Amino acid sequence: MYKILSDSILFKGLSEWNIENLFKKINFQIKRYKPKDIIALSGEECNYLMIVLKGYVKGEMIDYSGKTIKIEDVYAPKPIAIAFIFGKNNKFPVTVEAVMDTELLVIYKSEFLKLLQTNVRILNNFLNAISSRSQFLSNKIKFLSFSTIKSKFAQYILELAKNDFYIVELKQTQQQLSELFGVTRPSFARTIREMQKEGLIKIEKKQVEILNRKALIELIK
């Protein structure tokens, strides 16, 4: 367990020995789940830190029409809902479900606070992690506000390019982008092909060349 945790964003910079010694001072649990087991429900109070030790889970949100939107997959050794442990409305924003046989490390809030108070590096890692999560969720909300996949991707590449560049490097895979936009990968891939045929963009590997900036801007208006 400690070897896995040494690769986690929360324990970055700590050795297995350091982590093991810290865990001797707190109470924690290892919980196991089967595929399709519900780990947490959207709206349920989040009073503990969970880190995936084995397998992976997915976070999904259901809108008022009943449509399920996958927010992301969480693989070992990443934490789950790290930005929602503290605060007045500390509830899970999504339903968390095991995708395969999964093991989770569970540390209740009071015990996690002991770690934060004991070790400055863990505290710093935690603050960086929740800042990154806030930025991710902000981007997620922004892209979900666009009605079409074309408008989502147009916004994404125009943001990367700003006003000065016509060639940008994609920082995420097609799978990651489709999840960010809340669409399926086949739908996203089909849209990319359409945009190339329409002369809006040209893609080679991870490089995107903007061929018609004006038309892309029209897509997001």
What would a concise description of this structure say?
This protein has 8 helices and 11 strands.
Q: What's the number of helices?
A: 8
User: What share of residues are in beta strands?
Assistant: 15-25%
Integer average pLDDT? 89
Oligomer: single chain
The radius of gyration over CA amounts to 20 Å
- The total count of strands amounts to 11
Q: Provide the domain count.
A: 2
Q: According to CATH, what is the class of the largest domain? A: Mainly Beta
CATH topology heading of the largest domain: Jelly Rolls
What is the spatial order of strands in the main beta sheet? 1-8-3-6
Fraction of residues in helices?
25-40%
The coarse silhouette is elongated
Category by helix and strand content: alpha+beta
Question: Superfamily at the CATH H level of the largest domain?
Answer: Jelly Rolls
Largest sheet: 4 strands, antiparallel
Distance between the termini: 49 Å
Compile the SSE list and pairings.
Elements: H1 2-5, H2 16-23, E1 29-33, E2 38-40, E3 48-54, E4 56-62, E5 68-75, E6 79-80, E7 95-98, E8 102-108, H3 109-118, H4 120-144, H5 149-161, E9 167-169, H6 174-181, H7 185-197, E10 201-204, E11 207-210, H8 213-219
Antiparallel strand pairs: 1-8, 2-7, 3-6, 3-8, 4-5, 4-7, 9-11, 10-11
Report on this model:
The protein has 221 residues and is an alpha+beta fold. Helix content is 40%, strand content 24%. The strands form three sheets. Strands 1-8-3-6 form a four-stranded antiparallel sheet. β10 (201-204) and β11 form a beta hairpin.
